[in-house]
């Protein structure tokens, strides 16, 4: 037997073997991987595991070799790769049937659905994240939340926040930490904080890896390229994590979203949240703010940035966002 790195994009025959092995293990082949290893018996792929950033995924063993202890060298190889990259904290997806095995290897379960279990290993962990939320937790009980990317923060985002803030005691805004956007996570966080400074009952947090991230919901960032079946499984996991582990911590009773006429994946996410949240949390959809009959969107603003149409941008974003765009594009 030999363990080695495999290059899925360079070998169609090997990629087919890899896909077949995953399907035989009742796993969906996931295109979002950037490092993959395999164990081979001569030319036959009998075990595999992949990384996407600090996420371990697509881990499978041929049924004929289930008792050959192949998972240990696969995990060891993936962990060594993470350490080479300076990663001390990792996440793992697995099936409910194999969750206990990974927990015995030091992974901690964060949340599970009928289809998938989400675990982590290393520090800082989910308990550390909850502790960080507690530092700015308000004593109020009728609270709501919004999760947003704000890439960049627009008047549409501000309208959604303002409307939601009128209807609750405290509104918690969670800004995505994932760095998959034109504006960095720190810039987006600062723009939201600056944009809501005048609203006394709004508190702004980072999501870290625990909401709409590469760890919980990678398909969100693929938008129209995402496979909807995969996106639905991930959306359910993300929604359940929020409902069961984050919302009770902050007494959140409602989550606000803008109506979604543009992205099929985001529309699917909204629908899944509606189903998962009830009855504990109400999902409230607010019609998007329009200007001259067109919905204000961050997508539109990014397009105008590309076109350097700063005059048009000025009417779509708060002053602080406009100033950041000008500074960013000098």
UniProtKB/TrEMBL annotation:
The keyword NADP does not apply. SUPFAM superfamilies: Acyl-CoA N-acyltransferases (Nat), Nucleotidylyl transferase. Residues 143-325 form the Citrate lyase ligase C-terminal domain. Its EC number is 6.2.1.22. InterPro entries: Acyl_CoA_acyltransferase (IPR016181), Citrate_lyase_ligase (IPR005216), Citrate_lyase_ligase_C (IPR013166), Cyt_trans-like (IPR004821), Rossmann-like_a/b/a_fold (IPR014729). GO terms for molecular function: [citrate (pro-3S)-lyase] ligase activity; ATP binding; lyase activity. It is an enzyme of class 6 (ligase). It catalyses: holo-[citrate lyase ACP] + acetate + ATP = acetyl-[citrate lyase ACP] + AMP + diphosphate. Keywords: ATP-binding, Ligase, Lyase, Nucleotide-binding. Acetylation of prosthetic group (2-(5''-phosphoribosyl)-3'-dephosphocoenzyme-A) of the gamma subunit of citrate lyase. This is [Citrate [pro-3S]-lyase] ligase.
């Amino acid at each position: 037997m030999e363990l080695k790195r495999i290059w899925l994009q360079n070998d169609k025959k090997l990629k087919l073997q890899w896909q077949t092995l995953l399907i035989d293990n009742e796993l969906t082949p996931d295109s979002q991987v950037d490092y993959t290893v395999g164990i081979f018996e001569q030319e036959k792929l009998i075990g595999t595991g992949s990384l996407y950033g600090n996420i371990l995924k697509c881990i499978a063993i041929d049924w004929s070799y289930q008792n050959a202890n192949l998972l240990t060298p696969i995990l060891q190889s993936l962990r060594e790769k993470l350490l080479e990259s300076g990663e001390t904290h990792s996440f793992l997806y697995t099936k409910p049937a194999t969750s206990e095995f990974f927990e015995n290897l030091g992974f901690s379960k964060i949340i599970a659905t009928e289809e998938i279990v989400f675990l982590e290993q290393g520090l800082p962990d989910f308990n550390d994240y909850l502790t960080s939320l507690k530092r700015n937790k308000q004593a109020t009980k009728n609270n709501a939340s919004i999760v947003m990317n704000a890439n960049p923060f627009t008047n549409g985002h501000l309208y959604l926040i303002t409307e939601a803030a009128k209807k609750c005691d405290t509104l918690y805004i969670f800004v995505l930490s994932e760095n998959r956007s034109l504006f960095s996570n720190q810039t987006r966080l600062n723009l939201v904080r600056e944009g809501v400074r005048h609203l006394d009952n709004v508190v702004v947090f980072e999501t870290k890896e625990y909401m709409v991230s590469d760890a919980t919901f990678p398909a969100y960032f693929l938008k129209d390229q995402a496979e909807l079946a995969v996106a639905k499984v991930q959306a359910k996991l993300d929604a359940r994590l929020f409902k069961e582990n984050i919302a009770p911590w902050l007494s959140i009773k409602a989550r606000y979203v803008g109506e979604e006429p543009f992205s099929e994946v985001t529309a699917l996410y909204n629908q899944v949240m509606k189903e998962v949240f009830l009855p504990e949390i109400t999902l409230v959809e607010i019609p998007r703010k329009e200007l001259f009959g067109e919905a204000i969107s961050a997508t539109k603003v990014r397009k105008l940035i590309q076109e350097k149409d700063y005059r048009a941008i000025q009417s779509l974003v708060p002053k602080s966002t406009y100033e950041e765009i000008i500074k960013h594009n000098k």
